Amino acid sequence: MTDLARASLEHSSGAMTTVSRPGALDAVGSLAASLLAGGSVVLLGDGVGKSVRGADVDALVEAQLAERYELRRVVVAGGAHGVVLDESTLDAAAHDAAGAELVVSVGSGTVTDLAKVVGQRLGVPILAVQTAASVNGFADSLSVLVQRGAKRTSPSAWPSALVIDHDVLAAAPDRLSRAGVGDAVAVWTSPADWYLACALGVDPGPYTDAWTAPVREAVERMTAPGVDDAARMAGLVDALTLGGLMIGAAGSTAPLSGCEHLLSHVLDMRAMAEGVDHDLHGAQVGVASVVSAALWDVALHEERILDVAIEDLEPPADLRERVLATWAPVDASGALGEECWTAVERKVDRWREQRDAVAAFLADRAAHGAELERLAGDPASCAAALATWGAPATFSGLAPAVDAERARWALGALPFMRDRMTLADLLLFAGRWDGALVERVLARAGEAGGGL
């Protein structure tokens, strides 16, 4: 096991204390006392019941705080998509928590992301009680928000204290842990997108294995054959917590968020716009990790994308029209398309500013190709790791299932959503991003045990 207490202090520059062990829930009272001697505390949650050893988790937390603090509950209601962190939800939660001197969150990654925003707005410390091993976002200083219908990652605040009770996590629904596996397995392919963006000068970087290697090692432990349930859960906790710490320290999700996370966000955005259900973020990321690894396989070995000449790399003249057309079926008002175009335009501007870096990248394509081969992952390994935990590896295995049309659309939409450079953008600029490529990628993922 990783010493998460030491790692948390190190990578948060002393901002966050972590208690991670079976029975860690009993540390809530002492941690709160270290942050606030007495006064007003808001308990932030989503109203979803959570239990451990036959007891209610919220009640166990409240019992440790009731004598010392004036307690108020702020319950954020979820809809068809759970709690959605759009502008109105953020404003309402901050209003309801006004006057608090400490925010204590009990719940999911979304509830924790909300607490980090509310605590930052109020200028007060945050004590986060993690109730599932579902995402890596508990242990970072960023929050995934919905801005004008688009998913965006924004700076927020480190929790001052993070409580990870392994008994609470083990009692959570299995689908939450399987979603965490999907989020963790992304480390086998996402660093390739970050390396590419840094090497092309579009991401300031610089790329370093320091942000990814500890997470990769923990994922290998949690997916190794023959380990017992407790050891597997400990490995999952390490992988997710280290992942959060690394992206918090880096100040960006880029080291652990490539095409696979983007594909999940695209699926979320379409489902929210249409008012239909979608699966958990991590579950979608796991499926998308197989697809992302297949995309790298096709791009490097069939398309030979690194052999392209610099004069053949140019954003398409009709890029704005393509962005708007991608999102028009989802939002007929055009607002979502315009929001996405604003982000894509920033990406294109940075690309054009880095022409010398692109030329240098292509001049040293052999060395860069070797690094990308190392980081791009193997789709079959991703699929096998998901299978070890019973996590879905195909779009049809998600709940609800994502049909072939929606999967093809989501994959095709990758270059048309945000301002971060990925392999999909390089293929687009090379004139290779079309329906035929999408079909070959999905077929390669299918051969590996994923895809449709």
TrEMBL record:
UniProt keywords, alphabetically: Cytoplasm, Lipid biosynthesis, Lipid metabolism, Metal-binding, NAD, NADP, Oxidoreductase, Phospholipid biosynthesis, Phospholipid metabolism
InterPro entries from the UniProt entry: G1PDH, Glycerol_DH
Protein known as: 3-dehydroquinate synthase
Keyword Metal-binding found: yes
The organism's taxonomic lineage, starting at the top: Bacteria, Bacillati, Actinomycetota, Actinomycetes, Micrococcales
Superkingdom assignment: Bacteria
Cytoplasm found in the keyword field: yes
